[in-house]
Amino acid sequence: MFILIICVYNVWNEFISLSNPYEFELGKDSVTFRAYKQEHTYKISEMTNFSMRMVAGNTSIYMNINKGGILKGRYWIRVSEFEEQDEIVDYFYDLDEKVNPDSVVTRARKEGRERLAQKKELEKQKKISKKLVKN
User: Fold this and answer.
1) Structure pTM?
2) How many Å apart are CA 107 and CA 112, to the nearest integer?
3) Where is the composition biased (Basic and acidic residues) (predicted)?
4) Residues 11, 17: contact at Cβ < 8 Å?
């Protein structure tokens, strides 16, 4: 019986709620998820809730849009399968910031991204100065 429940749950997530879309479109004003000739489109200006978290060693994103329910709004995106992995993650971080500007998690994430960018820039400058010293 337990195996039957798991099978039904997985079929539901895959084919009915599109929880594992195989294609998505990230626009300036909307985001669309597609699978099996169906699509779910969300206008960013109409989003009331958005949450996301990186999982599986930062290779996937689990997200909830408008407090996702059993029919739509819950998505797993395997960003590691895309060449534009960093751009995809940045898009969803920026989306989180637009929808939840006052969230503590959003502010912490934004500050962490800024510190990471500063660290990368410092490392880049150190490499350049090492090359100049060697020459």
Assistant:
1) 0.69
2) 9
3) 116-126
4) no
Count of Cβ atoms closer than 10 Å to residue 17 Cβ: 19
Structure tokens at 26: 């990230």
Q: Is 93 helix (H, G, I), strand (E, B) or coil?
A: helix
| Torsion of the alpha carbons at 45, 64, 87 and 21, rounded to the nearest 10 | -110
- Both structure tokens of 80: 């590691």
First to last CA, the chain: 71
Q: Are 75 and 19 in contact (CB under 8 A)?
A: yes
Amino acid 36 reads Y
Nearest to 42 by CA among 98, 116, 89: 98
Amino acid symbol at 107:
R
